[in-house]
What we know:
The protein is α/β, with parallel strands linked by helices and 711 residues long. The protein is built from 30 helices and 22 strands.
Amino acid sequence: MDDLQDRFPPLPARIAGLGELAYNLWWSWHPEARMLFKRLNRMAWKATGHNPVKLLRVLPRESLEAAAADPEYLRQYDAVLAAFRQRTQTQVCWFTENIIPGECLPIAYFSLEYGLHHSLPFYAGGLGFLAGDHLKECSDLGIPMVAVGFMYPDGYVRQKINADGWQESVDEVLDRDAAPITRVLDEKGAQLTVQVPFTDPPIHVAVWQVMVGRISLYLMDTELEINDPAHRRISDHLYISDLEQRLLQEIVLGIGGSEMLAVMGIKHSVLHLNEGHPAFALLERIRERAEGGMAYEAAVQEVRATSIFTTHTPVPAGHDVFPFELIDKYICHCYPLLNLTREDFLRLGTSPTDPPGAGFNMTAFALRLSNHHNGVSRKHGEVARRMWQSLWPDLPVEQVPIDHITNGVHVPTWIDPKIELRCLECMGPSWLENHDDPAVWGEVQKIPDPEFWGLHYRKKIKLINYIRERTRQRWVKNHVGLGNVVVGGPLLDPAVLTIGFARRFATYKRADLIFHDLERLKKLLNDDWRPLQIIFAGKAHPADDPGKRILQRIFNFARDPALGGRIAFVEDYGEQVAQYLVHGVDVWLNNPLTPLEACGTSGMKAAINGVLHLSILDGWWLEAYNGQNGWAFPGATEGDRDALDAAALYELLEKEVIPLYYQVNDAGVPGGWVQKMKEAMRSIGPQFSARRMVKEYSRKFYQPALAAAGS
Length: 711
Ligand SMILES: *Cc1c(COP(=O)(O)O)cnc(C)c1O
């Protein structure tokens, strides 16, 4: 770790451990650790956006000294630091007790994006949060893992919506010194840089480190003086549209990432690819073996047996295909090193279902060179087997070797701390350890209905206050005009049934479906006795004009007085907004065009907090819906699908959702609703936790792959 002295003034010796804690995201999923920072100064905690590194940089010395002299603070400090040390250093853990008892080389996890915390904006959406939750859970279970990714120093896209409702993107420069990242140093004490093999002119990356509990995530940064100016921008943005830049990015991720681990002396035995972007890491693994004298076929066998590939989307545009000329331009030096002809190599990345000559398909390449592959829900497993059957032309579709492991969410990250506390009280202290055990969550019944409803209602108020305050600040800073202030939530009412819809504005997610029959919707929103309000959030990809048009449409509805001030749009959706929304709305709406949602995870984040999922039957909901824990409608497969699906949605709202919410007993509690909330937590919490997911990866894939690697 580099010298942190210049990041913030020296801390009082008695509480010096706060420095280390601030640089390990472990604090973010342990409420008692979060409280240590918050208690130093509540206003500063809020003003620094819940970022402990920033907090320690700005906090006056007096606040720190006061804490260091406060016995109650010190008691908590000692308890948290002891737990931190114990849980991040202990040798005995679920992995050693259930998978492999002794030491073994780590699994290398590669992903283009990571959603860990809003102070590290290295994500675009669901794929990133899945990766972030995976790392946190691997830390909790003690899976030996090292992770590789990118830092996007200039490229986090902030959303700003102009007076016409059109999304504009503002790039935000990362303040590296105020983020919980550290430079990795070389033996001379300078920041370590690594040259990506076979690039000409050479591409160099600087190496940064993020601590996620016991797991190190190494991030590459190409913004270096010695790089060719065009190459400095490789790690600028996620999902660059220019194909050549994008290919370079994936070469740096897969090949550069492998080299980075090698230069640091970090050996790994197994590789897990999160989506096809880092698939060139497979190439690097084969090349290393070939260079060591192994025959190509043997090298491929070994790499396959120890590589895991997770595919995440049935949307064709989600799979990168690069023109062969570009592959020739950047990879051709590898063909002879592998003893392959150009044709043999390109065939590895050819998908028979792409048009002839379409190019090099990263998913096909990853599938061919790994033995363990999966989709991310039961349904997506089926869809992926059909989608990629042509790679196994001799097998019937049900035997295509693509398994499924349904995604889950990291419960300690996404559960509201107050609910967590209450669950701990009724389910016992082992609840967090056993939160993938269905029996444990049944205890939620013990919380009396009025108390349970009170907890939820306060979170709804907190959400509304939070988005009003955000809008106020954006207005004061001139980020939004007066007209947009109305859209930003000041008219929301906590007593009203509140639907949340927040996700990327990809067209297949149909954010505007609920506006399909405007008159019917208006009746629901403006009902005198049983009104409805909807909070939207989400970004369109900067190059996605159809997505931006949907957003604009919703934005304009939100400004239309005819909709009663009951539609709000929260700008700049990110991790923090997501936290407030999944804790505080009543219903989480999901209506993509089936079967395009591979899994979906935001609805799980909502459900573990008792927020009821109202969703088309697609992705994870096909596995989770049991008739009692939310609402479902099937999704039309032909005809005017939008009209049919919208009608099904209105029907559910009118006949079931709205009446149940407003059926309140003498104590002011909607008893039937609360029963459903508890049932959602009971039935969804354990099964759709990242804990269940990581255990499944461990048993299905990590264990055999580690065995094949000789662990
Ligand atoms: C969970 C999450 C997502 C992914 O949600 P989906 O339901 O998969 O679309 C996207 N963005 C943020 C900020 C999230 O927290």
